[in-house]
């Protein structure tokens, strides 16, 4: 089985590295020999028989975050499973809408190929250098060899401690010290991977008593630098807390450890005809504890709502070691303050989430995807209104992509766009329901209307699983396409729908007027693009730069936040604040709210050891 996992990873990505389940962390490039059913480390002489390998993580090429072995398996097996669920049972529509052309499809993998925006060989600047006004808090103690001894004795397994205090572990620690965007980098010398809630409790209690600062870390896919230490904070990573605790088929309630990878949870649920009520591009790496801590939104919030609604209970550990057992599985529980809500979206600043109880809906039996070109943002809004009205309960995603973002995907993949001609805007609509014929009749009628009214200029419908995946890749592939350009300034914002795209136009105009935008290397900015979750009024404004440049940053910030504030929007729709937006909370929260947050922080974490230097 392990050998198959490696083979699958290598077939997809050229090579893979793995981290062993037990024993010291091993992250090396591996090669396989299918004839001998064997994997080996090319560096060094040891050859591993397949039975000897129990990888905990498969490390894909340096620009792709590590994934859990079951995720790699999912690339083959589970995709087929989801094919059955996602097959588009579209009888060819009577209208001019065409099926997706049989062009070269994207790789059928969705959501795994997140890669780094900056060339892997480039040094990442230390966050402490990038934010010189942030100073290390002198109240925090520095790690000693005695501390490390304590943690090693407590956590037992060698793979639970990466010790850069008493040994040189630079290479092993680096993935925990830097982020996916290669934008943030810390100086931690110790990574702890507790396995149980009790161990987390002991770790935090010790850290609190010794005044050792801590950064909780899940899959490390966050986009605002929240999971990366700024100075020498200890990283407490949840990757070994990866058990599904229970699932109740009747109620659809899943209870799982915080370190379960989102996609692993979803695959587990798929086998039981249920669905995790959250889906996002980083699902192959992010942890459900990380999702809850960031209150992640994702692709289907429109349908399944926010985690503030679907999370029924939480287990968390406070800095003093207190285990907060609020792991209720009840939908209704009106007994006082709903304290679990404080942890949802708190980004590791008041405690460490160790367990999650979540309401999961039945998996839809019929799923359809359509992809359109539109002539203006006004038409996009009209199409959205029509979709809401006509598709109502089966509408599960309404995504917006501008023309520039789609050209970038085309350039980076070499794949032709699904529809002929160029449009300033594209939308992807997904429907999910329980009755294929009923859903199809609704979708056909909707498509006839919007094409007949001239709202949509051209469009395609996925006819099979490959096309379903291929169409989604035009949306999900944007982040990766941008990543090939250099660095990206990312703004994930909520704005009233009518002005959603205006921000992109205004930002582009501003940067052009300042002489920053151009096609050759003398210009720092390569592209200003906009895309996002139209159904949630959530825009992703992305400014792709040849390299991170303080002058460009100063031209965007705080201008962009002022722009949003004037429209009563939010400067963070779903990614959180982390360190990236630590100074800007005041643009979306008034003084009273910030004061209340600080009071809560002091109440839960009087020594301030939890994720310091971030937004609170
Ligand atoms: C390609 C790509 C697509 C993405 N798409 C979306 C999207 O559509 N919607 C969206 O919302 N986000 C998206 N993200 C951002 C990111 O995936 C989410 O924020 C995700 O929820 C982070 O989970 P994680 O396990 O990686 O957390 P991490 O990055 O490890 O941590 C994020 C924050 O949570 C804290 N934290 C982590 N685990 C815990 C815990 N157990 N207890 C307490 N605090 C904890 C950390 O300290 C940090 O502040 C995307 C990222 C990528 C790379």
Automatic annotation (TrEMBL):
Pfam families found in the cross-reference section: FAD-oxidase_C (PF02913), FAD_binding_4 (PF01565)
Cofactor: FAD
Segments forming domain FAD-binding PCMH-type: 184-363
Molecular function GO labels: (R)-2-hydroxyglutarate dehydrogenase activity; D-lactate dehydrogenase (cytochrome) activity; FAD binding; metal ion binding
Main location: mitochondrion
InterPro entries, alphabetized: FAD-bd_oxidored_4_C, FAD-bd_PCMH, FAD-bd_PCMH-like_sf, FAD-bd_PCMH_sub1, FAD-bd_PCMH_sub2, FAD-linked_Oxase-like_C, FAD-oxidored/transferase_4, Oxid_FAD_bind_N
Domain of life: Eukaryota
Keyword Zinc in record: yes
Class of enzymatic activity (EC top level): oxidoreductase
PROSITE patterns found in the cross-reference section: FAD_PCMH
One GO location term (cellular component): mitochondrion
Reactions catalysed, as given in the entry: (R)-lactate + 2 Fe(III)-[cytochrome c] = 2 Fe(II)-[cytochrome c] + pyruvate + 2 H(+); (R)-malate + A = oxaloacetate + AH2
EC number: 1.1.99.39
Subcellular location: Mitochondrion
Alphabetized UniProt keyword annotations: FAD, Flavoprotein, Metal-binding, Mitochondrion, Oxidoreductase, Transit peptide, Zinc
GO biological process, one term: malate metabolic process
Reported function: Catalyzes the oxidation of D-2-hydroxyglutarate (D-2-HG) to alpha-ketoglutarate. Also catalyzes the oxidation of other D-2-hydroxyacids, such as D-malate (D-MAL) and D-lactate (D-LAC). Exhibits high activities towards D-2-HG and D-MAL but a very weak activity towards D-LAC.
Family of this protein: Belongs to the FAD-binding oxidoreductase/transferase type 4 family.
Descriptive protein name: D-2-hydroxyglutarate dehydrogenase, mitochondrial
């Amino acid at each position: 089985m392990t050998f198959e996992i490696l083979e699958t990873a290598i077939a997809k990505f050229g090579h893979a590295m793995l981290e062993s389940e037990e024993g010291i962390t091993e992250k090396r490039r591996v090669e396989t020999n299918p004839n001998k059913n064997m994997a080996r480390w090319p560096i060094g002489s040891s050859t591993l028989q397949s039975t000897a390998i129990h990888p905990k993580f498969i490390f894909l090429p340096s620009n792709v975050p590590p994934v859990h072995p079951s995720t790699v398996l999912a690339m083959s097996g589970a995709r087929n499973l989801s094919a059955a669920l996602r097959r588009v049972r579209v009888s060819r529509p009577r209208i001019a809408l065409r099926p997706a052309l049989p062009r070269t499809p994207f790789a059928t993998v969705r959501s795994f190929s997140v890669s780094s925006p900056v060339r892997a060989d480039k040094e990442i600047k230390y966050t402490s250098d990038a934010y010189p006004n942030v100073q290390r808090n002198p109240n925090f103690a520095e790690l000693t060899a005695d501390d490390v001894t304590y943690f090693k004795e407590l956590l037992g397994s060698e793979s639970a401690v990466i010790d850069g205090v008493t040994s040189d572990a630079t290479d092993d620690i680096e993935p925990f010290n830097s982020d996916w965007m290669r934008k943030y980098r810390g100086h931690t010398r110790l990574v702890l991977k507790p396995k149980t809630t009790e161990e987390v409790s002991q770790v935090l209690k010790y850290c609190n008593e010794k005044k050792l600062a801590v950064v909780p870390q899940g899959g490390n896919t966050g986009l605002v630098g929240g999971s990366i230490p700024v100075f020498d904070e200890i990283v407490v990573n949840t990757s070994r807390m990866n058990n599904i605790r229970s699932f109740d088929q009747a109620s659809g309630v899943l209870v799982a450890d915080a370190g379960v990878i989102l996609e692993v949870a979803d695959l587990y649920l798929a086998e039981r005809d249920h669905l995790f009520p959250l889906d996002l591009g980083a699902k192959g790496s992010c942890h459900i504890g990380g999702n809850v801590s960031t209150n992640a939104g994702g692709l289907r919030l429109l349908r399944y709502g926010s985690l503030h609604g679907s999370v029924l209970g939480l287990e968390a550990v406070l800095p003093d070691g207190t285990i907060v057992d609020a792991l209720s599985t009840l939908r209704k529980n009106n007994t006082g303050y709903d304290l679990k809500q404080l942890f949802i979206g708190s980004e590791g600043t008041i405690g460490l989430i160790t367990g999650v109880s979540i309401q999961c809906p039945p998996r839809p039996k019929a799923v359809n995807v359509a992809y359109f070109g539109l002539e203006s943002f006004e038409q996009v809004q009209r199409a959205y209104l029509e979709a809401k009205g006509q598709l109502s309960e089966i509408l599960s995603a309404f995504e917006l992509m501008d023309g520039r973002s789609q050209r970038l995907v085309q350039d980076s993949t070499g794949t032709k766009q699904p529809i002929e001609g160029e449009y300033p805007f594209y939308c992807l609509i997904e429907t999910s329901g329980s009755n294929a014929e009923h859903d199809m009749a609704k979708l056909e009628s909707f498509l006839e209307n919007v094409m007949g009214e001239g709202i949509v200029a051209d469009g395609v419908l996925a006819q099979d699983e490959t096309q379903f995946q291929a169409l989604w890749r035009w949306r999900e592939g944007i982040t990766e396409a941008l990543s090939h350009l250099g660095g990206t300034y990312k703004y994930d914002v909520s704005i009233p729908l009518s002005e959603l795209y205006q921000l992109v136009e205004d930002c582009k105009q501003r940067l052009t007027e300042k002489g920053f935008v151009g096609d050759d290397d003398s210009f720092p900015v390569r592209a200003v693009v906009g895309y996002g979750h139209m159904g949630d009024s959530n825009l992703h404004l992305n400014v792709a730069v040849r390299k991170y440049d303080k002058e460009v940053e100063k031209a965007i910030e705080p201008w962009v936040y002022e722009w949003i504030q004037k429209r009563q929007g939010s400067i963070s729709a779903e990614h959180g604040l982390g360190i990236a937006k630590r100074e800007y909370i005041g643009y979306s929260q008034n003084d009273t709210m910030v004061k209340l947050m600080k009071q809560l922080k002091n109440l839960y974490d009087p020594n301030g050891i939890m994720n310091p230097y971030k937004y609170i």
